[in-house]
Amino acid sequence: MTNTATTKETITITVGSTDSLHIRIPYNLAYIQCIRQITARRWEPKLKVWIIPYTIDAVQEFIS
């Protein structure tokens, strides 16, 4: 028997409205620094999601 632990870091993207995407990411400083680079992004503390505009530019920034 081995004593190994695995963690699963999942990024979830859902459509919040016709003009926004909700992104749920695990708490990781590197992820947070990257998402803060996206123009017009904001943190929604009640939902615990990042909200970015549902535009080509914002999605491309997120992917890169």
Keywords:
single chain; 64 residues; alpha+beta; 4 strands
Please state roughly what percent of the residues sit in beta strands, choosing from under 5%, 5-15%, 15-25%, 25-35%, 35-45% or over 45%: 25-35%
Count of DSSP H/I helices: 2
The rounded distance between the terminal residues' Cα atoms is 40 Å
Query: Mind describing the biggest β-sheet?
Result: 4 strands, antiparallel
Widest beta sheet: strand line-up: 1-2-4-3
Low-pLDDT runs of 5+ residues are none
3D structure, described in words:
Helix content is 23%, strand content 30%. The chain is built from 2 helices and 4 strands, in the order ββαββα. It has helices at 29-35, 56-63; strands at residues 12-17, 20-24, 42-44, 49-53. Strands 1-2-4-3 form a 4-stranded antiparallel beta sheet, with no helix packed on it. A hairpin with a 4-residue loop joins strand 3 and strand 4 (49-53). The protein is globular and about 30 Å long. The model has no long low-confidence stretch (mean pLDDT 87).
Draw up the topology in text.
Elements: E1 12-17, E2 20-24, H1 29-35, E3 42-44, E4 49-53, H2 56-63
Antiparallel strand pairs: 1-2, 2-4, 3-4
Task: Tell me briefly what this model is.
With 64 residues, the chain is of the alpha+beta class. 23% of the residues lie in helices and 30% in strands.
